[in-house]
Structure formats: structure tokens, C-alpha cells
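Sample intake — Glutamine--tRNA ligase
Collected from: Sandaracinus amylolyticus
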Amino acid sequence: TARRAHDFIRDIIDEDLRAGRHTRIATRFPPEPNGYLHIGHAKSICLNFGVAREYGGTCNLRYDDTNPEKEDIEYVRSIEADVRWLGFAPTGVYFSADYFPKMYELAERLVREGNAYVCDLDEEQIRVYRGSLSEPGKPSPYRDRSVEENLDLLRRMKAGEFPDGARTLRAKIDMASPNMKLRDPLLYRIRHAEHHRTGDAWCIYPMYDYAHPLEDAIEGITHSICTLEFENNRAVYDWVLEHTGPWTPRPRQYEFARLALDYTVMSKRKLLTLVERGHVSGWDDPRMPTIAGMRRRGFSPEALRAFAEMIGVAKANSTVDIGKLEYCVRQDLNQSAPRVLGVLHPIEVELVGATPMTSEAPFFPPDVGKPGSRPLALGSRIYVDRDDWRDEPPADYQRLAPGRTVRLRYGLCITADAVVERDAQGNVTKLRAIAHPETVGGGNPADGRKVSGVVHWVDAETSVPAEVRLYDRLFKSAKPEEGGADFLEQLDPASLVVVRGARVEKSLASAEVGSRWQLERVGYFAVDSDTKPGALVLNRIVTLRDSYAE
Ligand code: ATP
Ligand code: MG
Ligand code: MG
């Protein structure tokens, strides 16, 4: 397989292998099960699993479940399903909580070796003692407790003798360090909470800065890749490993830029707010930037992987044009989605002089070059789209209007003859048209009429009804959170428009949930999971046209 474009992470790995620092590469993807995965996680998944695949190494899925209150088994299940759907198979699936006994054992070792102490300051006091970037911190009054006292207090913390927040275990590092993270970071806090995996076995929980390096070391991870905001935590990561080792291999942390996309929000906390307040139908609402939402919308794993590859891996944060994602989705659909006919807002047309016919219509245009076709029946009544009719057309109008002639895609030419019916608002609902049977298969009408253009249509008799959900970007503004704005106020009410009473050709009647189609001239659509027998529901994946040019 062709080597993908190189980035700084892959350069580091190449150099580690060349210098003999490692002989095998081990990565991990470590989500916290406190929400569904989003497109940012997809970037991290593609990087971690992609690297493992390219170098013949391993990549674990590890649930970073050290915050009992926010975590849930529903999230655990969705995360693994999403990783697998994206096309990756974890080497192992692990839970941080399974390492709690080992982590605790190492905490006692830190205490015994004088590298950690039990501190009685509360959260606010700890913050004040820590100082600021411009002033060194003050040592906690509990910093010099004896090893015996620290061990006794730590064991009593673990035994549940103290309430939440009463005490913490802290690393004894350097209260004057210019790196604030090194000013005696917290290793354990007390939380009398039910954990989704360990129940009430524990009432002390390790902090990220302590847990993460140990999880990596226990699993033999070589390259621990995280996002840029953890840059300053790297010093703590290294300190923990130095004081609990030796570890072979010795994991190293590397930071890359997290993905931000315009027209959306990406933190799980904000996505949870959208779900809880009912602004979307759930984590898998097709407008959500979650993997589950994008899957339901109709994005393919190939499209998401192509997007991850396109944006690459960089060391500086930036916001990516959501048009790039839509571009990748269209590129993929153009190659994979069969073309079919469907009419969102039907006008009935009675055809005069047409002989019922059936043509064999190809699923793909010649430039895609894929095989496949289906029979398309054309009877004496059809539907065309409201958007393809004007009572008073502009001069350059290429569709139907009084007296105008158009070609029906895969069919024949028809000339609009009379308006038969209008609704209360005066919109045309029924037309009569003259058919030109001599134009089946091509050519202009024998009477020399000019053909204005080609329109899509469906047969009235054989087509099936559909509900069509037109999805668009969830937010009105590119940066819904700019300047501290309330992102909920930037929601676009037009991000979902439901069209009832659409009609699609018969071949879609038995289309599978999740299958993707192009309705010619209309857009790309996927069959939604709300579909029931006889009640087809289509999601618009993307429109046909690109706003983004590569
Ligand atoms: P959020 O802020 O959305 O809640 P998180 O970083 O807290 O995300 P985790 O579950 O801890 O979510 O993330 C698991 C992995 O995915 C981490 O290694 C993290 O670096 C990576 N990740 C999360 N968000 C992004 C993003 N926007 N771009 C790239 N990687 C990300
Ligand atoms: Mg996290
Ligand atoms: Mg988070």
C-alpha cells in the first residue's frame, strides 16, 4: 500500500525505529466514556490506529474511566461501535478502572519513597497556595508529614473514613516551578460515587495526570498521542513514570492540534447540552458532529477517513472549513451512490399521447464507469417537481412553463399544454402535457419544437411515497461560540426541513436502511432508520454542489 503523506508524528516514529529506541510501535485511543465520539475523535482514531496499521504495530481502545459521575455504559458501547464502524479493530479493549489496584499500589510506593503526601487543604486553598505564573507557590502546611503519617492517612482515605474533598494525595515536586502543573499536582481525590465498572469498591479516584502515564506504561504504549492543551502536563507525565518505573518500553507523550470545525461545536459537554435540552433528537441526530450522527446522516467511513487524511496532523490549532468535510463526503458519494429519480414537491402531469413504456436506466453516469441499471416504468401519469414549473418563466428558463417542451430523463419529450388544477394558494398541482413518442431514446420532436432542458420525474402509478428530511448545518454562524456568545442562540431553525409527500421511483421501495443514493438534480440521500415497511424516510446527506474547491 502507498505510504501516506508524512507528518511530525510519523517522523518521530521513523527516527525512534532508526535509532533502535523501539522495535515495535504501540499506540492507544483513550476516550472518556462521558459522551458519544465526535469528528475530532475520528481524527485521533485515524491517527492512532492508522499509525499502528502502517508500522505493523498495535493500538488499544482504552476507556479512560476515572471520573465516575459522568460516565455511563451507554457511552462505552457506542464508542467501540463507532471505532469499528470507522474501520479499525482495537488490539485490546481496556478500562482504566481495571488498573486501580496497580495504581494504588504505586501511590503507596510514592509515599514510602517520600514523593507524595496527603494534603488537607481544600480546593480553593490549593489554588491560592499554588500561586500564579508571575509568583511562586507556597508549600502546603502538610507537605512535610512523615512517611508513616502519610501512609496511614492514604489507607484511611481508601477505606472511606473521610468525606469528599477532605483530603487529597499530592505529588511532592516543586512549588516554585515555572510550569504550574509541576506545583505538587493532585494524584488522588476522594469521591464517594458509584462507578459504572467498579461499583462502590473505590472512594478515591486517580487524577488524569497520574492515571494516564500509568495506563500507558502498564499497556506498553510507546507513543502516547494527545492534543496540544496537554503540552504542560507532559512534565508531570514524565515525573510519574520516572518515580514509578523502570518501565519498558518507556512511553513518551506527543501533542498534536485538535480538530475544530466551523458551523459546529465539538465539546462533549456542549453536545450533551444539545441532547438534554432537546435541540436535537439525540446523540445520533444527523446534524450532530458525532460519528453516530454522521453515520445516520449518511456519511461513509471512507469519507471520514479521507477527511482525516486531507486535514493531516499539525502542531498548531486552527479551525477547518466544514466545506472540506462536505467535499470529502461528495467525492465519496459521487463514486458510490447509485443515481435514481425522486420528486420532493410533486406536480401531477397527465400525458396525452404516451404509450406506456419501460426503459433500462443506468445507476451510474459514464464517467463513474460502474455497472448496474434498473427498469424504469413511464405510464400515462407522472410527477415532476414544483421547482421545475413557472407560470411566467424568465427568458432563459430551462424547464417547464406554458407551451414549453422538456425531455424527461431516460424518457421522452413532453410539451406543457394546460394547467388542470391549482391549490388554494394558486400553486399548480396538476398539469396536462403532450407526449412526443418519436423522441424515446433521443432526438427532438418531429414538429421541430425546441427542447428547453432535461427534468427528473417519477411514474405516478409505480413510484412510492417518502418523507424527506433536509438537513443543513446546525448553526447559523461559522463560529457559534465567538466572543463568549451563547452557542444555543446560534442554532439554525432551518437546519432541518421535513418534506412530507415526496415521491421516489419504485427501486427505492425496498432500499436498505443506511443505503446511499443520489436523487438526480436533487442531492444525496440515505435511508434513515426511522423507515418502516411502506413508509420510507430519507435523510439528505449533502446537496449536489460544492462550496469548497480544493
Ligand atoms: P471533549 O473536549 O470533546 O470532551 P476530550 O478530549 O475530553 O473531548 P476524550 O474522550 O478525553 O475527549 O478524548 C479521547 C481522545 O480523543 C484524546 O486522546 C483526545 O486527545 C482526542 N480528541 C478529543 N477531541 C479531539 C479533537 N477535537 N481533535 C482531535 N483529537 C481529539
Ligand atoms: Mg479527556
Ligand atoms: Mg472532555
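Post-analysis note: The chain has three domains: 8-256, 268-338+467-542, 342-455.
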